[in-house]
# Entry
Amino acid sequence: MCRWRHRRGRDEAVARQVADEITSISGGRVLGLGVDLRDPEAIETMAAEAERHHGHVDVLCANAGIFPEKKPLREMTAGDVDDVLAVNLRGSVLTVKAFLPATERAGHGRIVLTSSVTGPTTGYAGWTYYGASKAGQLGFLRRAALELAPVGITVNAVLPGDIRTEGLTDLGEEYLRRMTAAIPLGRLGETTDIAHAALFLASDAAAFITGQTLTIDGGQTLPESLDAGDGPCYGCP
# Structure
């Protein structure tokens, strides 16, 4: 089996703590749940609890996913592939499906998927099964956008590049240095960079946008090579 990263992101106690903190700061109604996206029944329960707690669901941000350890194609097992696809791809599909009734009852809706540049735009040796899961999300997105447009629901995706998260920092300082050197803006992305993009796609400002992707990568996927940048520090070792 592959080793899952983002351990804190899968900690129900942390989720509940964050929900309590948001409630105390904003006074809003926040619900923290622990859900295994490999379990269809757990996903259905999550959707039901969300609607019960909030009355309806205007926005669904399908952000949950796993980032497995790097493993060459020749060494991958069926279990490795199944784990990643079950959470990243099947989990996204079933989450959208489970929340549809609550979103339709709201009268309109915004669905935002978190994909990645890895798979849809770029490739990285050792993460073939991760790339496949993220590319698959976009195939689903385009069909779902067509099906749900008549009921006023938009479906879009954010495609993060290298973002400073637990999963990325686990890869070590040398990896972070090389990744930073490949980004024209000269820094790794922050989680707030992704949050702002998702917030835009979830807002009324994006009401006429559906079936689209928004890449947030500091320009990393723009150059043809390390020599293509104009900045004095781009591609520096």
Q: What stands out?
A: DSSP finds seven helices and four strands in the chain. Helices lie at 12-26, 40-54, 78-105, 128-148, 166-169, 173-181, 191-202. The two ends are 35 Å apart (CA to CA). The first strand starts at residue 59 and ends at 62.
